[in-house]
């Protein structure tokens, strides 16, 4: 790699890390190009030699968050030889814990909207989809007669339901919920969904 | 009412309606004091004689949205003499339809965060809580042995789960879901939760 390219890559990494720190501290609303440029020691305009636009920068930070979430969920899975149903409960609770521990970065994943008319790039969608395997696999074991398509739809629904509980719980919208109570509730609801779906599939 | 008070009340209503139109058209991000002032024909600063701050203005618009949601859910309930379980499914689907039809105003209810350190006023929390009766009542009928506290917690969980499905589905985060497919999925998951909880309660 030439020295120029090397410097460019280092500066780009520094920019992404600075953006990550900024989002972690104050959310997406706190992200300012000028401050990032000052922090990594480059001119304001030079930021857009490093990333295409603000969307790409936020997606790159999101990519790091998703990577850590992936590792966190994998660790939760390997903890025990639980049944597939119990595994889904564990994954859901691990998701809640990760969100609580990485609140602003996790929140940014969902709050970010692409600039009007611009589609989310394929690489970012691919990374999001990749995470669904944590839910997909136990569901496929639980419901062997369902098609891959049906399992995908159920995985998405189950994720969305758990995400809703985590989001409203942690945002403290509508009555604040202590984290322990939220974890208990998630466990009850995921168990109910799994058992309810099993009843229907019989 | 004196003419001055009357004028004040009229201008305040006009401000809230102008804010509602602005949010409906472009979301919370599009709300600008200056444009609202121009639209209702008053000076920029005069806006804050009509409402305390932007938070209050947004909450007043939210209050109108919640009022319409309440009426919408009530209409959905009165459509049939369904069982309590079916009623919960209907309410969930009606919630989804309302969100789809009032996307930006519905989204603003959840996106709005009070300025740092300021609590949500009691009147706004009261209005939000009031809506839970639509879920609370059928749940109380389904689970007569559960305490009021337990039913409240379950109502909040059920709402959060449905809200998550609606939010991620309509935001088109993670694979776009056609509205019909989303309604079907909500119906499957709410039914599974109700049946799964009933199984546990036996």
In brief:
The first copy, chain A, has 202 residues and is an all-alpha fold. Helix content of chain A is 76%, strand content 0%.
Query: Mean pLDDT of chain A, nearest integer?
Result: 92
Strand content of chain A: under 5%
> C-alpha Rg of chain A, in Å?
20 Å
Spans where pLDDT lies below 50 across 5 or more residues of chain A: none
Largest interface: A-B, 38 and 38 residues
Following the backbone from N to C, one meets helices and strands of chain A in this order, namely: HHHHHHHHHH
In total, how many beta strands of chain A?
Answer: 0
Give the helix level of chain A as a range of percent.
over 70%
Mass-distribution shape of chain A: elongated
Distance between the termini of chain A: 60 Å
Judged by helices, strands and strand pairing, the structural class of chain A is mainly alpha
Largest sheet of chain A: none
Oligomer: homodimer
- Please tally the helical runs of chain A, counting DSSP H or I stretches of 4 or more residues: 10
Task: Offer a few descriptive terms.
homodimer, 202 residues, mainly alpha, 10 helices
Task: Outline the secondary-structure elements.
The structure is a homodimer of 202-residue chains.
Chain A: H1 3-26, H2 33-40, H3 47-50, H4 54-77, H5 84-101, H6 103-111, H7 122-131, H8 133-142, H9 148-170, H10 179-201
Helix pairs in contact in A: 1-2, 1-4, 1-6, 4-5, 4-6, 4-7, 5-6, 5-8, 5-9, 5-10, 8-9, 9-10
């Amino acid at each position: 790699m030439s020295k120029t390219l090397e410097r460019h890559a280092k500066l780009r990494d520094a920019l992404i890390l600075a953006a990550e720190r900024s989002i972690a501290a104050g959310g997406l609303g706190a992200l300012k190009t000028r401050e990032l440029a000052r922090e990594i020691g480059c001119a304001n305009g030079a930021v857009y030699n490093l990333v295409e636009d603000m969307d790409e920068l936020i997606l790159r930070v999101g990519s790091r968050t998703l990577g850590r979430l992936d590792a966190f969920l994998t660790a939760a899975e390997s903890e025990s030889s639980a049944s597939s149903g119990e595994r889904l409960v564990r994954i859901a609770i691990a998701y809640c814990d990760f969100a609580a521990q990485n609140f602003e970065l996790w929140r940014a994943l969902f709050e970010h909207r692409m600039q009007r008319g611009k589609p989310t790039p394929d690489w970012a969608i691919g990374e999001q989809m990749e995470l669904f395997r944590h839910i997909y696999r136990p569901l496929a074991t639980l419901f062997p007669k369902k098609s891959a398509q049906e399992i995908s739809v159920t995985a998405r629904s189950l994720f969305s339901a758990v995400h809703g509980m985590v989001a409203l719980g942690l945002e403290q919208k509508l009555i604040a919920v202590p984290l322990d109570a939220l974890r208990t509730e998630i466990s009850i609801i995921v168990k109910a969904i799994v058992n309810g779906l099993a009843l229907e599939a019989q």
